[in-house]
Amino acid sequence: MRGALLACVATACLLSGNALAQGATPAAAASGCPATASDMPLESLFGTWEARFEGLPGAAKVQLAKHPDYAGVRGTITRGGGDTPPTTAQLAGDVDEDGYLSLDESVDGRSISGVWLGELQAASCGKEFKGIWRNAADESTRPFVLTKINDNTGK
């Protein structure tokens, strides 16, 4: 029994040490939370998210699901409502080689109207990205926060 306990503790130390070596904070390593988006399974991106853009009122609703053609996500963003009619754009993307969430946005379904590049916030345990959204028409940028509100799996 004691040998099994020591083996379990040693394994936990090795796993925590490995997570710390990869840049995880001690709290993230201890909790098992991903340090970067590269540490997350793709399925963690599926579900409903809330997007807030600096300087713009309200929040947009983002839905992400498995992309049917490659190892990435596809979905929609719906902005507006209330006093303004809602608008919906298409999203598609993945986690790039540097561990950033990269999304292309298209209002017309053919050309890119916006580009998202977000970094997972390690303390969020996979539930928050912060980054920059770039308008493809005029190259203007806005900081954004993308927060998960539902994973659509009933968990």
Tell me what portion of residues adopts beta-strand conformation: 35-45%
Question: What is the N-to-C order of secondary-structure elements (H for helix, E for strand)?
Answer: HHEEEEEEEE
Please state the overall shape, judged from the principal axes of the Cα atoms.
globular
Strand tally, please? 8
The main pleated sheet reads as: 8 strands, antiparallel, barrel
Proportion of residues in helical segments: 10-25%
Low-confidence stretches: 1-29
The Rg value, from CA coordinates, equals 18 Å
Q: Mean of the pLDDT scores?
A: 83
In CATH terms, the superfamily of the largest domain is Quinohemoprotein amine dehydrogenase alpha subunit, domain 2
Strand order of the largest sheet: 1-2-3-4-5-6-7-8
CATH class of the largest domain: Mainly Beta
Keywords: Signal
Describe this structure in words.
With 155 residues, this protein is an alpha+beta fold. It folds into 2 domains: 2-31; 37-150, Lipocalin. Helices cover 17% and strands 43% of the residues. The protein is built from 2 helices and 8 strands; from the N terminus they run ααββββββββ. It is globular, with a radius of gyration of 18 Å. The model is unreliable at 1-29 (pLDDT under 50). Keywords: Signal. Residues 1-21 form the signal peptide.
List the defining traits of the structure above.
single chain, 155 residues, Lipocalin, 2 helices, disordered N terminus, signal
